[in-house]
Design goal:
single chain; 94 residues; 1 helix
Length: 94
């Protein structure tokens, strides 16, 4: 019998892929999935991915989330200075 794998808390799912939760926010265009033994695939925009050792995957997700926010014109994922925040708080999605 195989033992069920416990995934990192920042992965929300299961869906086809897991949504990514960083600092309590669901990051748009960023998903993740378990990829083999202790590897996590971080997927950007359903087009680009990197397989990361699980112990570093949350740090990589944080960095990618910040880069996505800055690329979209925000100061960080927590920025709420525009009409619409970059990433909704987990549990507040409509």
């Amino acid at each position: 019998m195989s033992k069920e794998r416990i995934l990192p808390q920042f992965m929300v799912g299961p869906l086809t892929r897991y949504e990514v939760n960083v600092e309590g926010r669901v990051i748009p265009r960023l998903t993740a999935m378990a990829d083999g033994d202790n590897q996590i695939s971080i997927i950007v925009d359903n087009r680009f991915s990197a397989s990361i050792p699980e112990e570093y995957s949350q740090q990589v997700a944080w960095l990618v989330a910040q880069a996505l926010a800055v690329g979209a014109g925000y100061t960080s994922i927590n920025s709420e200075t525009t009409d619409r925040p970059f990433a909704p708080r987990y549990g507040e999605m409509s």
